[in-house]
Amino acid sequence: MSELHRSSDDVRIDAVPIPAFPGDSGWDDFAAAAEVRNGSETEGYGTTDLNFSAEEALPTWLNQAHDPMRLFVARADGRVVARGVYETLADPAAHFAWFTVQVLPPYRRRGIGTALVDHLESLARTEHRSVHVTYAVSRNAPGERLSSPTGLGRFRCRTPRYSFSCVAVSFSNRSNAAVASCCR
Q1: Which CDD domains does the UniProt entry name for this protein (predicted)?
Q2: What is the pTM assigned to this prediction?
């Protein structure tokens, strides 16, 4: 695996090769990334009903010809503490890229999520994908909300966990003023 980013906290972001089968090269990192996903989803949704083992998730990742995805992990303290997923359409001319970034709770607010988003945005720019869609699980809680300009979805404002998402949104949609005022 090649090192892609290093921060002052000695965090490393690596590309994870998708293993062909459990136990194949890259399996340990793939499985650790699945655990990060499950932990984040469990915290966000308040249930383990949506968890998938690495074995259950692998077939989706093996469909690269029709559903291209790349997996990255962030390491700190000798372990995988975050994951980033970069998804596109199979058509290289398509302008869309989807990002998923999940960081274990003890490692949040250290720039790890931001480093992953920066890396995913860099990939999208390199591939001329100008529409970036970010997925972030968030518990339903009281507070001011920012609605999507499309009318589908919204997220809670002034939430430290997703402050990096505000920056990503402000670069890519027409509601910049609303994002800036909501997320300060």
Answers
A1: NAT_SF
A2: 0.76
